[in-house]
Every structure is written in structure tokens, then in C-alpha cells.
Amino acid sequence: MKKQISPSMMCADIAEIKSTLKTFEECGIEYLHIDIMDGAFVPNFTLGPDYCKALKKMTNIPLDIHLMVEKPERFLDIFPIGFGDYVAVHVESTPHLQRALAMIKAKGAKAMVAINPATPISALDYVLPDIDGVLVMTVNPGFAGQKLVPQTLEKIQQVRAYLDRKGYAHVEIEVDGNVSFENATKMSTAGANIFVAGTSSVFTGTDMAGNIAKLREAVL
Ligand code: DX5
Ligand code: ZN
User: Fold this and answer.
1) pTM > 0.90: yes or no
2) Are strands 194-197 and 4-7 parallel, antiparallel or unpaired?
3) Rounded Cα–Cα distance for residues 102 and 99 (Å)
4) What are the residue numbers of the active site?
5) Of the residues 32, 72, 116, 123, which has the fewest C-beta atoms closer than 10 A?
6) Which CATH number fits domain 4-219: 3.40.50.300, 3.20.20.70, 3.40.640.10, 1.10.150.240?
7) Closest ligand to 198 CA?
């Protein structure tokens, strides 16, 4: 599967957003990872629907919206979700997971189910027909700058094998949290193909284009 980079926009310098997006376009960045938090599902607040709408006016790079909110099905209509976008909802965040995923697909977007480090893979059993991707959280969601939960590396491998075994080899795996250059290589080898790049790779130092090239090299 094509290895793709999705920079975590909560880590981006808002004062430099125009030049950041220009760099991303020049570097062929595939998605913009948008962390949405409600202070309930995770103890933090970050970006919102208006930020997503503003980005849509500034660039054609598809959005990769990560909903870390309770009962996300309540909010899908207030986000600019459309063809080419990914929307991830957490299995832990709603009793109506299948309905939420079907709503995302009905909007023409790609549906992704996110699982926290402690959540078993079997949670995916009855939504496999509804998803285009699995978001394997490699940190506990809520904050940038955290350290990888070590056992999630093996979990990536197990998710890849599980999907292939069940006949869902087309379903992608995104990883999110402490995707450093070093960790990215291990995550790629384990089977991930979409990399949420935050403070530990794309947004370090001042050479963003160089960081992107280095990350692409790391996941080859
Ligand atoms: C954590 C967020 C991540 C985070 C990644 O809840 O979902 O997207 O911003 O940032 P780093 O790379 O610093 O872990
Ligand atoms: Zn995220």
C-alpha cells in the first residue's frame, strides 16, 4: 500500500499556516490530520469545524479528521466532510459505531475506526464492511508530544494480519502518536501505511520539507 503522510495540524504554527500548506502541497502531502477534542472523551480541546472550513478554502489537500469526542454521530453534519476526506471515530466513543461509520460513508468520505492502545482488535469484528481504514492509536489520545506505548507496535502487526485474514486487505492502517523518524520505520514494517506526523517528525526544527523527505525515507 502507498505510504502516506498526514501532518497533525494541532502541532502547526497557526501564524505560519499559509507557508506550511504551501510546503505541504509542494511535498505532495496526502492528508491534513485534524484532531478534534471535546474535553470529555479526552481531557483537552483543540481544533473545530470552522478551522476545517478555513483549511478547505486554503488548500485542496484532503482532511483526515480525527474525532476524539463522545457520540461523534451528533456532530458529523457540522464538519465540511466530503469526497476524498477521511473521518475517524473511536470505537470507545459511541454505542452506535456502525451508524456513525455509515453516516460518514453517506457523505462520500472514507470511514476510519480508531482504537485506543488498550482496546482489543476484536472490537472491529462487526464493522469491517463499513471501514476504509483503522486508526491504531500509538499513544493515549489527547495530547501531542507523548511517548509511544510500546506494545502498540506489535498491535499494528496484529491488526494488519487480522484485516488480511478476514479478507479486508484493502483496509488501510493509520498510526497516530509519537511517529518519530525512528518509530515510523518500525510502524511501517509492522504494516502501517498512513503516518500522523506531529511534534516528533514534521514539526521539529525549521526544515519542514527536509523533515517530510526524511519521514518518507523512514517509511519506505
Ligand atoms: C494525540 C493526537 C496526535 C498528536 C500527534 O491525541 O491525536 O495527532 O497530535 O503528535 P505527536 O507526534 O507529538 O505525538
Ligand atoms: Zn490524531
Assistant:
1) yes
2) parallel
3) 5
4) 35, 176
5) 123
6) 3.20.20.70
7) 1
